[in-house]
Design goal:
The complex is a heterodimer of chains A (274) and B (311). By secondary structure, chain A is mostly helical. Chain A folds into two domains: 50 residues, no CATH class; 171 residues, MetI-like fold (Orthogonal Bundle), CATH 1.10.3720.10. Chain A has 15 helices and no strands. Chain A is globular. In chain B, a hairpin with a 7-residue loop joins strand 1 and strand 2. Chain B is globular, with a radius of gyration of 24 Å. The longest helix of chain B is centred in the N-terminal third of the chain and has 31 residues. Chain B is mainly α and 311 residues long. A two-stranded antiparallel sheet of chain B has the order 1-2. Chain B has one domain: MetI-like fold. In chain B, helix 4 packs across helix 13 and helix 9 runs antiparallel to helix 11. The chains are: A mainly alpha (274), B mainly alpha (311).
Chain lengths: 274, 311
Amino acid sequence: MSRNKPHPVAGLLLMFSAVVFAFPLLWMLLSSLKSSTQLAEDPYSILPQEWRWDNYIQAVQAMPFLRYLRNTLLLACGSVLGSVLSCSLVAYGFARLRWRGRNLLFGILIATMLLPWHVTMIPRFLLLRELGLYNSLGAIVAPTFLGDAFFIFLLRQFFQTIPEELSEAGRLDGLGEWGIFWRIIIPLSTPALATVALFQFIAAWNDFSGPLLYLSDPKKFPLAYGLEQFVSSYSDQTHLLLAAATLFTLPIVLLFFLTQRTFLRGIATTGLKG
Amino acid sequence: MSTNLRRDVQGLAFISPWLMGLGLLFVYPFVASLYWSFCRFDLLSPPQFIGTENYRRLASEIVEGGGFGRAIWNTGYFAVLSVPLSIALGVGLATMLSWKVRGQSLYRTLFFLPSVVPVVASSALWIWLLDPRDGIVNQLLKSASLPPQLWFKGASEAIVPPKWFDFGSKDALVFMSLWGVGNFMVIYLAAIGDIPKQLYEAAELDGAGRLRRFWHVTIPMLSPVIFFNLVMGMIQSVQAFTQVYIVSEGTGEPATWSLMLSLHLFLSAFQDLDMGYASAMSWILFVFLLIATALLFRTSRHWVHYQGAGR
């Protein structure tokens, strides 16, 4: 099989592409450790003249970093709880129960995935404001308790692979549907649930438009929004900005490395089956 | 109570969270925004029916190249460049990763990592990398004796002649989106792994070289994923918001050359409090995406090859 051996020129192309892709992050990391004078006078030298770890402490102090972090974690944990809970219930209803209208409703569920968020943005905003959720983290967390089409789809695909005999055995033991869901399906589905939790955590961590729409009180801002404020108000303090951006990115990168297999498999399956 | 009815109630009970969401977060907003698109509505007073005025205003803006027309052009420019390029790059990178080379998993990580960087952070990063005065990219261009670019501060459009090497804000956004192609690349990579080896062997026996095997085996086998990427890429690029908001500091500047549909819609609604106009815009956008998706599905019959019957 000669298919897998690359031509030498192609090998060089691969290396070149890798350098291009890696460069921005590497450059950000290195520059975040340079002094402000070095960034002003000699911005193109690769290594920091002196490694200024202090930049990170200053960046954290230049904004209410810990409060932002707390808000982000509240948003992320609340959303993960909401999504895992609601989506697993709904996915069970679609995957393991037979009832009239199921396929029609599932079709509608898929169709909502294609709906651009603009169409619902304004009424959704006014509705949540009516419910007294404006300027509250609840405006962002509450909708996750009502399910998300993408995650429901992902979990349904997984639940369908669990043999029906296991449910039958549960029924013979006198379990109701709730018992089967809770005692049989959920314990067998931890990989899929972990994928949902992971993706929802990252989505909440990164979410910018939610806080932009719903939060007005700086005390409630999460990191993503706080960082944007920092970008627009401290544009002359590049070293601090880069340190803050690195700090904001680092947890997600670490999470990726820790959960690489769950991560990549999640993307591959949802993409292929979509 | 019949068992059928019991089963229906049980099924509906399990999906009830989503049913509530469907009603509150989709059906109601859907109907409300359709109605408001025919209204003058500034949040301060109740919506006031004005017929098709919002739609006529949007139509005249398209003709005169005003706000909405500008936004359509900008969004179209971004989508037409970023979607095909991201497909080409995604397929290209995945193909390279399928080669047997040393450090394969390191390469995979390097290509994928940018796509997990939060958009707020990557926007801040690229604003700095592409700074027209002392950004590293312009410095690299200079050392290659190429002219420095204005990037996010510029209004030029590289594919509009005669400005072939004149990159402005939208071109910069395209480059930024290509950097984050890792998501789709992973899907391509998985699909390449699923291609049966016999197909390549058969093609080789028929005397097909490297390129012909790529073109006649890999590409057709990847066509379902390419199609998925095309549909999702179109929807995502038409909705691009966060990066556009951040690089233009929430204004669409320079001189509305980065004003994309989603930003224009957001500003009309929440800055000008012109909810009726914004709702009408969202409906035009929705109908456009619906038609475009339907057309893509129609053409897909001719070029997307599904393996087996079940998928």
